[in-house]
Design a protein that fits this description.
The complex is a heterodimer. By secondary structure, chain A is mainly α. Chain A is built from nine helices and no strands. Helix content of chain A is 75%, strand content 0%. In chain A, helix 1 runs antiparallel to helix 2 and helix 2 packs antiparallel against helix 3. The longest helix of chain A has 26 residues. Chain A is globular and about 55 Å long. In chain B, helix 1 runs antiparallel to helix 2 and helix 2 packs antiparallel against helix 3. Chain B is elongated and about 50 Å long. The mean pLDDT of chain B is 88. Chain B has three helices and no strands. The termini of chain B are far apart. Chain B is mainly alpha-helical. Classes of the chains: A mainly alpha, B mainly alpha.
Chain lengths: 187, 100
């Protein structure tokens, strides 16, 4: 990756990440986040991690973002109002803490031996599906199998959480009736 | 060629932006998005350092991080939906039921 391309991608990633944090309309935040994720996918491909880069674009910028968009749509979120009073102190504290964390990270990474130096020439086939699969299904086979259990638990958990609890209907029947379309979308 | 430390520095910057978002924002969904930014910053560091060491392990870890992030997004958004159904809000300041 040439320096010019890197600077362009890095600036794009940082600006869109700032947009994610700073925008007041959640949909705008989401759009900025998609730009961040796609930029990182391109950086992955530039780092010879082609398979992971495409996975990032498909899984993150595709599937997970659609999930976010559905939830924003279901909740009918509007742009936030201006900051409440007393919020300035929080901003100051957040800025201070973030600056401290940034300083810490840079000191740690500056001393990391593996971060020094330019990228070496990649071995043949580096980052290809074949090499990723060989590593995944040999050294990380147990972790891979456990991941399937994690996903199953996540599916069951998400359905159980998003399902309407029957007792809630008894407490507020009118509200529950009004929410019927929301539930059918979740299911 | 771009030195590897630049990629790691970019990852640090993105992570700090995500942390600032988690502290500053009150909308739970946007806090969630900030967490996604942090996860991606870490992924970038994994890929960059794996590339530097010529090892595939970093990319495999990124694969696992993506899986965990997908599971986390599904469960987290389900929790947000169920909280919104009961409390009619996604403002983190108003969700103080578990505060003592």
């Amino acid at each position: 990756m040439s320096p010019g391309v890197f600077i362009f991608l890095a600036a794009l990633a940082v600006i869109s990440a700032l947009g994610t944090v700073a925008q007041r309309n959640p949909v705008h935040c989401l759009l900025a986040l998609v730009v961040t994720l796609l930029t990182i996918a391109v950086i992955f491909i530039g780092l010879d991690a082609v398979t992971v880069g495409f996975l990032q674009a498909i899984v993150y910028a595709g599937a997970i973002m659609v999930l976010f968009l559905f939830v924003i749509w279901l909740l009918n979120l509007q742009a936030e109002l201006r900051s409440a009073p007393g919020y300035l102190a929080l901003k100051a504290i957040a800025g201070l803490l973030s600056a401290g964390l940034a300083a810490e990270l840079f000191v740690i990474l500056w001393h990391a031996p593996s971060a020094a130096g330019a990228q070496a020439v990649a071995p043949a086939g580096y980052g290809s599906i074949g090499m990723l699969a060989t590593t995944l299904f040999s050294d990380y086979l147990v972790a891979f199998e456990i991941t399937s259990i994690l996903l199953l638990a996540a599916i069951v958990g998400a359905i159980a959480l998003a399902r309407r609890i029957p007792s809630a209907r008894a407490v507020a029947p009118v509200q529950a009736a009004a929410e019927t379309p929301v539930r059918s979308e979740v299911a | 060629m771009v030195p590897m430390s630049y990629f790691v520095a970019l990852s640090a910057v993105l992570f700090v932006i995500g942390v600032a978002g988690v502290i500053l924002r009150r909308n739970i969904i946007v806090i969630f998005m900030s967490i996604e930014v942090m996860l991606n910053a870490v992924n970038l560091a994994f890929v960059a350092l794996g590339r530097r060491l010529g090892s595939m392990d970093g990319q495999v870890i990124v694969f696992f991080v993506m899986t965990v992030a997908a599971a986390e997004a599904a469960v987290g958004l389900a929790i947000i939906l169920s909280v919104f159904r009961n409390r009619e809000t996604v403002n983190a300041d108003e969700l103080n039921l578990m505060r003592w």
